[in-house]
Amino acid sequence: MPLADSPFLRACRCQPVEQVPVWFMRQAGRSLPEYRRLRGTASILEAVRDPELAAEITLQPVRRYGVDAAILFSDIVVPVAAIGVGLEIVPGRGPVVAEPFGSPADLERLRPLQPELDTPYVIETVRRLVAELDVPLIGFAGAPFTVASYLVEGGPSKNFARTKSLMHGDPATWFSLMDALAGIALASLRSQVEAGASAVQLFDSWAGALSRRDYERFALPASRTVLEGLAELGVPRIHFGVGTGELLDLMGAAGADVVGVDWRVPLTSARARVGPGRALQGNLDPAICLAGFDVAASEARRVLAEGGTTGYVFNLGHGVLPETDPDVLARLVELVHAETALGRPAAAGEARP
User: Fold this and answer.
1) 199 with 139: CB under 8 angstroms?
2) Is residue 352 part of a domain?
3) What is the CATH number of the domain that holds 217?
4) Annotated catalytic residue, options 10, 39, 64, 190
5) N or C: where does the chain have the smaller number of CB atoms within 10 Å of the terminal CB?
6) Active site residue 26
7) Is residue 217 annotated as a catalytic residue, yes or no?
């Protein structure tokens, strides 16, 4: 089957599919024992910079689960780390910036990303994967707001106080920062698509920390720059955030073909908010997978009943948790494929022959 006719790409384009496609955010790594053995003591950034290793990590869940798409093994902070921002990914904590951003002078630490010079290992990884995969490869980048929050806070945050203070207290510096990060994200995504990625996902993981008014003013314009800047390449563009139920329509209007939905919002409500012409992706609660397959299966059937069979990609409502049993995910893939291939998703609790 040509990749253009794959269930995943057809679903992203709201075209009919024979069965609902499925993949999982953070499927590359984390819960897989083969991933932990392969990566060993290497840091995430070290693994990303090794194309042979990064390609193999990307392929592992495709082999294990039989998912309908692969997502590149990388991290949203790879581009800013590559241009020299002092940043490390600390195990158990996440991205940590040695000298957080907070003034106009800090903007001088950013420069345009030159993918061929700064992240050639990402391009090489994509090329290796495209040569081997028989399912589409999803490239990705961090949305400007989420990457900015790490740079300004100095690491993960619960209240984003420094970020919101900069946004409102020095909007000129904030918008300059967002413009720079939008350019970096766009350059990174374009290089991934030009190397062969079939779709892209823009992760605005922490956009849910913003009110609707603040998102529309301070975050949406930069995300629109990224997503609309990819339009001419003709690949599906997925936009995802956590806690973004009140922002779903705006995230779609930023230029997304597919809007990712976390577990807090029923897909029926999400579809009404996003409106026609855009697909949905989501939204099984990742924690449900820890309760065993029977519980996860029941919840998956409910999600499928809400998602429908057209313009819908089954996924979790956020990333795979590290303690997840890989067998549960493999069986969920089988369930989604088998039950939606019958022509309609099963209702919650419905028995299948």
Assistant:
1) yes
2) no
3) 3.20.20.210
4) 39
5) C
6) yes
7) no
